[in-house]
Design goal:
Elements: H1 2-13, E1 29-32, E2 35-46, H2 52-71, H3 75-83, H4 86-93, H5 96-99, E3 100-111, E4 114-124, H6 129-139, E5 144-153, H7 162-173, E6 177-178, H8 181-188, H9 192-197, H10 203-208, E7 213-229, E8 232-247, E9 253-265, H11 268-296, E10 303-310, H12 314-328, E11 333-340, E12 343-350, H13 354-365, E13 368-373, E14 376-380, H14 383-386, E15 395-402, H15 407-421, E16 425-431, E17 434-441, H16 445-453, E18 457-462, E19 466-471
Parallel strand pairs: 5-6, 5-7, 10-14, 15-19
Antiparallel strand pairs: 1-2, 2-4, 3-4, 7-8, 8-9, 10-12, 11-12, 13-14, 15-17, 16-17, 18-19
Length: 472
Amino acid sequence: MKRIFLLAFLTAFIGFAVLPVAHEAWGRVRQEGDVWIVSDAEGHAPIRGGNRGAAREEARRMAYRDALEKALGAVVTGITELQNYMVVRDKVFSQAQGIVRSFDIVSETVDDDMLILVGVARVTAAALDGVLGPAVLDAIGNPRVMVLIDERIGDRTPFISTTEGLVLRAFERAGFLLVDPDQSRALLNIDPSVAFNDPTQLMDAARTLNADVIILGRAHGNAFTEQRVGGQRLFGTRSTVQLRAVLTQTAYQLGSQVIEKRDRGLSEEDGVIRGFQQATPEAASSIVHRIAYAMVSGLTSGRAVNVRISGVSFAKSETLMEGLLELAGSGGGAYLRSFSGGTLIADVISDNSARSVASFLTTDHGINVTGIDGQIVQGEVGEAARAPRNQQAGATVTVRITNVSSFREASGIEDALQEMIGAGEIDSEFQDGVLNISIASDKTGREIAVFLSEHGIEITARTAQNVEGIVK
């Protein structure tokens, strides 16, 4: 069911009519026009210092979040879990006040110094178009798209491709970055009809142009009837547009779509182009949808994280590539784009987020990570590479603890961790019995796991930068 909810969300993202959402797991939700009615939006907040008014406002904001997640099938949580990309959630929730049209309180109760609000929220679906689009593109790493279309009318190849222009326009409207079509044609010098059947021929060339996704198309049309109507010759035409989306690094097909249209024109070309103009937007919209859905829902057998590290010797570059290949695992890969002037540029195809790759480079290879931008990790070989790993401070460890019974218990765990790390920083979120904590300190994942196990938390998984556990 989660994929259905993601589908509803992504449909809204690319401007389609929003799919209705209704499922007991996400509460009582119904759709009325461009508004979703959430009848059990709930928010809670602690009453600090007896200030019930402040608690009510905080609980109201949490109810807005709850309404958004229920109306969208918890899609925001889904993206955050898949990408470990908190910006996505923040972008949506920062706009919550404008998206939640109204919130009518049905009940207000206090339980153990916790104020709980339950109400009816009206969520404006149309307003989500401009908010969720950038969030999704960020989540899937702002992929760069290259379009290559084999267009023919009868046995002729037109000088200007109608289909290519319409496909480019569809992706541009959706916010994708595009490779200049004139540049790609000049550099590739590849027959589009050949590339459509064997996209692997394009892989190296497309990587040179920094294209993450290739849209291969075949648009063929011809006249199959001819008649005179009122003294005018009319041609009955058949136009077929077929599009395929392929990942540049792995040749994995993200989706395909075939649309056929029949029309009439004063000439074969006139009728066929009319058909292309009808079929292409429909096919392109479907492909835009499928790319976003496949990449954000983890159906691509891995995502591409671009790694750029300066100050690298050749020997160090070989070691880094071996390490990245091991990180990618059997289902992924590590591909060298270039090594020049001491700078290594590589792509890692795996289920790891950019943050996970950055943590791996820092922890296992002593790389000083200087920035993470979308799906790009930048770093340099410097002091971090020479310092012993157990002395590298400032690393971030994420902790996820389930079966937490109350907000008070979550606060107790957070306070204990804060005391343990001293001057480090903690950022946390508690919802539905799950406590998520981000810890920036000089403590390792192992030290934090040992500390939690000594305080009644059963550790279920641990890596250098991630700890998972459950309250016994």
